[in-house]
Specification:
Belongs to the 3-hydroxybenzoate 6-hydroxylase family. This is FAD-binding domain-containing protein. It comes from Rubus argutus. The chain contains ten helices and 17 strands. The chain has helices at about 15-25, 50-60, 105-115, 165-170, 240-250, 255-260, 280-285, 310-330, 340-370, 375-395, and strands at about 5-10, 30-35, 45-50, 75-80, 85-90, 100-105, 120, 125-135, 140-145, 150-160, 175-190, 200-205, 205-215, 220-225, 270-275, 290, 290-295. α1 runs parallel beside α8.
């Protein structure tokens, strides 16, 4: 099949991969994105983007394409045991909205992909092996494809998700189960759902559910619960998932929630365990070696409880793009292989502690909200977490990762 040579090869055409390619393009660096699927991976239905993600999208020059999605101004949290409702506001003191905006995952992926030359994304590309080769005083990454093609790259970036081939090559720790599972789906109301643009959450013993309006017709919903006993398989057929939620898990939730589940687009329903990487593996692990590094879930898989998986991937893309782009510009618009080890090392050190802390915050957020029994856990959730810690966490994650000025 032959051998080709590329400046930058990105493994994975999800949020992190496409956003990194866009960031590099703004600096004039061409990247080849290898995606194993036959097209853009739109699984997941929707995701929540906090202000830190919008800062990154601004830097990438694509935020205007998603401007039709309105921010949520409030989240209402209903205690299923007592009926008590807590309200959390996202507005600044001057009244400006700073809340998260939930968007269709497909819309975000298309907004990023549209910024790239059509030839820069190679679908149905499956990797069989990775190795490195020393060339004079620098390292070249060699990617072997299942179809026999060999690609040599000055820089190799793994954006291939939690079960990343690249992160495994780097020796990063495998994903571990959080002990919780999540059902997620998208409900469609062709005539409109009539709800305001606020988030509704329901919390109870070992479970947490939520409704997040995306548009006037679409609602993203989720149901998190303690994972079934070891050896018990999760339903995979969409109709079985829907039936299981309605009959066994959500039967005592408000009628509104059941109605949303019944309006689900079955093709969007998934039920999967929530996995993450131990934060100490991120702090002490090799996030880069020579000219190879990782971004997005390949670096920092986390539970979705702070809505930061996609947000941190977008931050990664801007910061990695800035480090590589700066080196490219300073070296006469040439990617110098021997400089890449130091360049990627600087990117890793800028990201390492921040994403490790977000992994910990996300895990704690999920653990405390799906409170076990006892007044102590309820006090921790309702008073300490909702009234104090959650706002501190949101303030921490709402970080401006900077611009891409080359």
């Amino acid at each position: 099949m032959g051998t080709t040579v590329e400046d930058v090869v990105i493994v994975g055409g999800g949020i992190a991969g496409l956003a990194t390619a866009v960031a590099l393009k703004r600096a004039g660096v061409e990247a080849l994105v290898l995606e194993r699927s036959e097209g853009l991976r739109a699984t997941g239905a929707a995701l929540t983007l906090f202000p830190n993600a919008w800062y990154a999208l601004d830097a990438l020059g694509v935020s205007h394409k998603l401007a039709s999605y309105a921010p949520a101004l409030k989240t209402y949290v209903t205690d299923l045991d007592t009926g008590e409702v807590q309200e959390m506001s996202y507005t600044r003191a001057n009244g400006d909205p700073v809340g998260p905006r939930s968007v269709h995952r497909k819309a975000l992926l298309e907004a990023l992909a549209d910024e790239l030359p059509i030839h820069s994304i190679r679908f149905s590309s499956k990797i069989s092996a990775i190795e490195t080769q020393q060339h004079e005083d620098s390292s070249i990454a060699i990617v072997h494809m299942e179809n026999g093609t060999v690609i040599k790259a000055k820089v190799l970036i793994g954006c291939d998700g939690g079960h990343s081939v690249v992160s495994r090559w780097l020796g990063l720790g495998e994903l571990v189960p959080s002990g919780r599972s999540s059902v997620r789906g998208l409900a469609v109301y062709p005539q409109g759902h009539g709800l305001d643009h606020n988030v509704q959450q329901y919390v109870g013993l070992g479970r947490r559910a939520g409704l997040v309006p995306l548009t006037n017709k679409d609602i993203y919903w989720f149901f998190n619960c303690i994972s079934p006993a070891k050896g018990t398989s999760l339903a995979e057929d969409p109709e079985d998932i829907q039936r299981e939620v309605l009959e066994n898990y959500a039967k005592d939730l408000p009628h509104l929630y059941s109605d949303v589940v019944q309006h689900s687009d079955l093709s969007t329903l998934t039920w999967a365990p929530l996995m993450f990487r131990y934060p100490w593996h991120v702090v002490f692990g090799d996030l880069s070696k020579q000219n190879i590094t990782v971004a997005g879930d390949a670096m920092h898989p986390m539970t979705p409880d702070l809505g930061q998986g996609g947000c941190q991937a977008l931050e990664d893309a801007v910061i990695l793009g800035r480090h590589i782009g700066t080196s490219f510009v300073q070296n006469g618009r040439v990617l110098v292989p021997k400089a890449m080890s130091e360049v990627l090392g600087k990117y890793v050190e800028e990201r390492r502690w921040r994403v490790a802390l977000v992994i910990m915050g996300s895990y704690f957020s999920g653990w405390v909200q799906q409170a076990r029994s006892g007044w102590g856990m309820k006090f921790l959730r309702d008073v300490i977490f909702y009234k104090f810690l959650y706002h501190k966490m949101v303030k921490y994650v709402n970080h401006d990762c900077g611009k891409l000025d080359f």
